[in-house]
Amino acid sequence: TRVVVLLSGTGSNLAALLAAHADPAYGARVVGVVSDKPDAGGLVLAREAGVATVVVRPGDFDDRAAWDAALAEAVGVFRPSLVVSAGFMRLLGAPFLARWGGRVINTHPALLPSFPGAHGVRDALAHGVKVTGCTVHLIDAGVDTGPIIAQRAVEVRDDDDEARLHERIKTVERELLVDVVGRVAREGLSVDGRRVRIGSGG
Ligand code: GRF
């Protein structure tokens, strides 16, 4: 299964996927990495691993829709079966979802539907929850609102700050993402409304 990863940041989730895909039995291969930011650290990781990279910068396009369409095209060049958004800090618009919807998954560092958006870790900490976690879900038109594929809990400690909590979450998150991407690649996904099951049967 050909996988394209969308990222905007350091790429620790990408690094975990690259480590996993070295095993032919994993079932998924990262064939391309696409970013909105030319200086995303994850692009360096991809290049070091010999994986092709493409940057699609919003500033290079007249408007949001043009950028969205260009992003969809850039992803299409790699002919992926699955698109994984891992720390991609842009919303995917209707043109992109029209083409890739149902095959795009996202990882979020909170237990959705709690704490969606760009500051899920900070918001969970501020709310005083004792347990947070991470979620892998299908992307729909909303912000972190798509059907949930898998989740894992992570404890919040009294002396946590955002960075320390996010690191603890990321340790669990990349394991969950590697597990889910491999299983989806090998077994497929079946979606019934908001209920998602890994494993064909569909
Ligand atoms: C991850 O925690 C992801 O859920 C969040 O941003 C972080 C990206 O980390 N949206 P990395 O770039 O994969 O290290």
From TrEMBL:
PANTHER family: PHOSPHORIBOSYLGLYCINAMIDE FORMYLTRANSFERASE
Enzyme class of the recorded protein, top EC level: transferase
Positions in coiled-coil regions: none
Superkingdom as given in the UniProt entry: Bacteria
GO cellular component: cytosol
Biochemical pathway: Purine metabolism; IMP biosynthesis via de novo pathway; N(2)-formyl-N(1)-(5-phospho-D-ribosyl)glycinamide from N(1)-(5-phospho-D-ribosyl)glycinamide (10-formyl THF route): step 1/1
EC number: 2.1.2.2
Keywords: Purine biosynthesis, Transferase
Gene name for this UniProt entry: purN_1
Protein's UniProt keywords contain Chaperone: no
Residues bound to N(1)-(5-phospho-beta-D-ribosyl)glycinamide: G11, S12, N13
Residue intervals of the Formyl transferase N-terminal domain: 2-181
Name of the protein in its database record: Phosphoribosylglycinamide formyltransferase
GO biological process, one term: 'de novo' IMP biosynthetic process
Catalytic activity entry: N(1)-(5-phospho-beta-D-ribosyl)glycinamide + (6R)-10-formyltetrahydrofolate = N(2)-formyl-N(1)-(5-phospho-beta-D-ribosyl)glycinamide + (6S)-5,6,7,8-tetrahydrofolate + H(+)
Purpose: Catalyzes the transfer of a formyl group from 10-formyltetrahydrofolate to 5-phospho-ribosyl-glycinamide (GAR), producing 5-phospho-ribosyl-N-formylglycinamide (FGAR) and tetrahydrofolate.
GO molecular function, one term: phosphoribosylglycinamide formyltransferase activity
Pfam families attached to this UniProt entry: Formyl_trans_N
Residue positions binding (6R)-10-formyltetrahydrofolate: R64, M89, R90, L91, L92, N106
Active site: H108
Site (Raises pKa of active site His): D144
Family: Belongs to the GART family.
